[in-house]
Amino acid sequence: MIQPLPARKIGPLTVSAIGLGCMNLSHAYLPRPDPVQAERLLLHALDAGVTFFDTASIYGFGANEELLGRILMSRRSKFILASKCVLGEVDGRRGLDGSPAAIERAVEDSLRRLRTDHIDLYYMHRLDPKVPVEESVGALVRAVEAGKIGTIGLSEMSASTVRAAHRVHPVAAVQTEYSPWTRNPEIAVLDACSELGIGFVAFSPLGRGLLAGGVGGKGVPEGDLRADMPRFQSPHLERNLALFARLAGLAEAAGCTPAQLCLAWLLSKGDHIVPIPGTTSIVHLDEDLAAVGVQLSPDQLAAVDRLFHIGAVSGARYGASAQAQVGTEMWPGEEMA
């Protein structure tokens, strides 16, 4: 039985200690759930105590926001809603537009698709290098002043960009990939968030499924977003699956699943950190949420750190085109693509 989820603060917002990343209900990973399965998953999450739901305009080019709007908005007062702009559809393709005019349009489009008049946390999904971050944040400030969004977030940005944005307006949350196999936030962003009172939202906390046992030796299907990521391509995949096998051994010794071990490890890193695993399975969702009850000893936490020491994971986390849109710091010698 799932125990009640403890709460954590991200900026001024109070959310469940584990949220739900909704991307793979409409976007990126295969196979995708049918509409009935997606609806059941979202409603089960809400009933199980999840109070933090994360979407974005790019997910399914609006389809994910429409899904949440259709399924969850009758219970709008029960959860914190987060979405994102800047990374979206530009001339029919995935692209960046951080201009104030584009952000203003994106806010209106998100509100319409989500069937709400207020988004609690609205992120810049990526930094548009053609637009100073101060100008993009200025557009979000105006949306806050108009009551259309509650707080401002940043995604996949460096500590220096976070500081520059925070000087314009308080940033509530920074969202970046963080898990035992992606530890780039430990370079500078986590420290910046702690110093400035900013919450940290960890996306892909289970290594895009590999650290939960969701990827086998055959890799992922053609057309799956991960197929273009070097870590999921041979020979890197085989090396990373060997790391997962060792992680599974640590989890067995700790009396939990590998997914729970990863989430408990993340929760231990700071009270301002909230992981948002995604799943299409109610069984896996319940497994993830049960991680709040997993207590790891210092030795068990250290064993995860040692297994995933910097340089242990094989392959870059993004392909070249996707990496070009990411502003987070990289470790010395880290593979670019």
Automatic annotation (TrEMBL):
Pfam family, one: Aldo_ket_red
Keyword Oxidoreductase carried by entry: yes
An example Gene Ontology molecular-function term: oxidoreductase activity
Entry's transmembrane regions: none
GO CC, alphabetical: cytoplasm
Keywords on record: Oxidoreductase
Gene3D superfamilies: NADP-dependent oxidoreductase domain
Keyword Metal-binding carried by entry: no
Limits of the NADP-dependent oxidoreductase domain: 17-307
Family annotation (PANTHER family): AFLATOXIN B1 ALDEHYDE REDUCTASE, ALDO-KETO REDUCTASE YAKC [NADP(+)]
UniProt protein name: NADP-dependent oxidoreductase domain-containing protein
Organism: Sphingobium vermicomposti
Organism lineage: Bacteria, Pseudomonadati, Pseudomonadota, Alphaproteobacteria, Sphingomonadales
